[in-house]
Amino acid sequence: MRHHAAAPRRHRNQIRTLVLVDRAQAQACVLLHSVAEASLSDNADPGKSSGFNRRAFIAGAAGTAVAPFAARAAGAASGPTDKQDASLPVQITLNVNGADRQLTIDARTTVLDALREHIGLTGSKKGCDHGQCGACTVLIGGRRVVSCLTLALVAQGQPILTIEGLGGDNQLHPMQQAFIDQDAFQCGYCTPGQIMSALACVREGHATSDDEIREYMSGNLCRCAAYPNIVAAIKQAAPAILSAPQKG
Amino acid sequence: MRPFVYQRATDAPVALQALAAAANANNPLTEASIQPLAGGTTLIDLMKLGVMRPATLVDINPLAATWSAIDLDGGNLHLGALARMSDAAADPSIAQNYPVVADALKLAASPQLRNMATLGGNVLQRTRCSYFRDVSYGACNKRDPGSGCAALQGFNRSHAVLGTSQQCIATYPGDFAQALIALDAVVEISGMSGARIMPFAELHKPPGDSPQIETTLAAGELISGFTIAGRWPRSVYLKARDRQSYEFALASAAVALDMQAGVVRDARIALGGVATVPWRAAEAEALLKGQPFDDGLAQRAADAAFADARASQHNAFKITLGKRVVARALHQAAAMEI
User: Fold this and answer.
1) How many CB atoms lie within 10 A of CB B96?
2) Is the pLDDT of residue A180 over 60?
3) Which of A4, B58, B87, B138 is most buried, by the most CB atoms less than 10 A from its CB?
4) In the prediction, which pLDDT does A247 show?
5) Facing residue for B246 by CB, picked from A83, A110, A218
6) Whole-angstrom distance, CA of residue A95 vs CA of residue A93
7) Which of B84, B27, B33, B28 has its CA nearest to residue B58?
8) Residue A72 has pLDDT above 60, yes or no
9) Is A82 an interface residue toward B (CB < 8 Å)?
């Protein structure tokens, strides 16, 4: 599993401690999860399906709830416009970080849940799940939106850019680097949403002063109150972003 | 969230055809089993809460190809209903000629939500009354007609003081609608039988005895656009709230003035955050017209705007606050250099 480098060290260590509590249980969960994931992600990244990680632990713990849906999804083939049974899954294609992903989902699935639960991109975070906190912010069609209130069905045909799509294999995006340089997070949970929102804020031309940055970043809450450092990070990254050709 | 069937409408006739089935049912528009989906910032939220439970969603976003234009043509402003709030707010011709519209849009919600929400959907945004939004409260006449109103004796700090009834005191939460009603906007509505226009002031219905009926839209109809006649460069939207940004209004005022040599020739005032519907303060406007503008006049107009206000246990402060917001907005508009 690929962590974006801006993820806070403290947070990762806590997760590692949690995961290693019961090795026997964890190994059992890996088996459950690999079955569920193979069913849910039709073209899952081959590099991320092996080994043990936090997703495996959580999905394994909820494995009994996931498996029946996966079985139901496998038998469906109808498209969104011709189906009339709301209980049947639908097949969609989402373009995420430049790659098309075919998914079989319940119509109720939001972009956030599609990213996290079906594609395995867990960088985008679920905070309030009601469009109030901004932790789920991604760019759809180049515009920042809250992915928790966007149905995956509606997002078809538009490029989706998530935190995982920033930067290169060995290089952070200037905004990611700026968040590290300016210590713009503590727990890190809101950080992927902050960074995606900050990138859009700069590209929109709304990062010309501290006051303007605060106003145009007000849709991203940070319970650790790293706000002054976030403003500093955006000011640091803005020149590089504005002078670079737009990606995603 | 309850399961639903998703349909994507490729154009307006397809959308109206898909929504027409809902027109045959007698339930109010807000309870219709087929709902149009645009930005989704209200609908998906309320579906997650179980407040709205449509069986079918008709995705009307593809209609943006024809219904999202923003045109300032011959002194009239036309706004397509599927224009996004952020796009309208950033339009230079709106900022220059209708600051009250641009500011009402900019001060609403967050950048992400403004990127999603459409103008047509925004004026139909539903109340933030916590008793309406939380289905574990049994008493809500808006959600379940005849069940009572938990807010009347509940925590009603954010509730309305104007346009209330014994059945409902829920506040209309939006900002943009106040600008529209103040400027005598016209709303264009499309249905299976064609398009019709009516004054925006006739769109929303005060709760009265049927708070579940919020607008005069019929099921199966869609708002396709808005038109504002004339230009209003001397106009402001002032919003007082618990936080400086990203918060609903406790009290807001949309004010537009036409002044010559210090005398008010025409005045428009609409109130937000304090009323059950977008609220036009006609008495205050009448008091201003033809008068030389000064502190005393602004204060008398503000008092007149709240003459009929009726407070509940926790929201009497809104009357004091609302008057100050009106008076300050009038001062700001009068002082504008245009």
Assistant:
1) 13
2) yes
3) B58
4) 54
5) A218
6) 7
7) B33
8) no
9) no
Residue A57 corresponds to which amino acid?
F
With a CB cutoff of 8 Å and minimum separation 6, the contacts of A29 are A56, A57, A59, A60, A61, A63
**CB–CB of A153 and B8 under 8 A?**
yes
Q: Is the pLDDT of residue A80 over 50?
A: no
Residue B21: its chain A contacts at CB < 8 A? none
What 3-state class would DSSP assign to A80? coil
Q: Are B111 and A130 in contact (CB < 8 Å)?
A: no
CA distance B46 to B53: 8
pLDDT digit string, tens, across residues A113-164: 999 999 999 999 999 999 999 999 999 999 999 999 999 999 999 999 999 9
Q: Cβ contacts (< 8 Å) between A219 and chain B: which residues?
A: 109-113, 246
**Residue A66 pLDDT greater than 70, yes or no:** no
* Average pLDDT score over chain A: 77
Contact present, B114 and B77 (Cβ < 8 Å): no
B30 pLDDT band, cuts 50/70/90, is confident
Is A44 within 8 Å of A74 (Cβ atoms)? Answer: no
Partners of residue A114 in chain B, C-beta under 8 Å: none
pLDDT tens-digit series, residues A217-234: 999 999 999 999 999 999
Choosing among 3.30.43.10, 3.10.20.30, 3.40.50.2300, 3.40.630.30, the CATH entry for B5-61 is 3.30.43.10
Sign of CA dihedral B174, B176, B181, B182: positive
Q: How far apart are CA B99 and CA B83, in angstroms?
A: 17
Exposure class string for B277-300: b at 16+ Cβ within 10 A, else e? bbbbbeebbebbeeeebeeebbee
Q: Which chain A residues are Cβ-neighbours of B55 within 8 angstroms?
A: 86
Of B4, B6, B245, Cβ closest to residue A215: B245
Q: Are B33 and B86 in contact, with CB atoms under 8 Å apart?
A: no
- What is the pTM assigned to this prediction? 0.87
Domains defined for chain A, CATH in brackets: 1-75 (no CATH), 89-162 (3.10.20.30), 174-243 (1.10.150.120)
pLDDT beyond 90 at B23: no
pLDDT digit string (tens) for B100-109?
999 999 999 9
With 0-12 / 13-18 / 19 or more C-beta atoms within 10 angstroms meaning exposed / middle / buried, residue A35 is middle
ipTM computed for the complex? 0.96
Q: How many CB pairs under 8 A join A and B?
A: 90
Say which CATH topology domain B68-338 has: Enolase-like; domain 1 (3.30.390)
Count the Cβ atoms, other than its own, within 10 Å of residue A212: 14
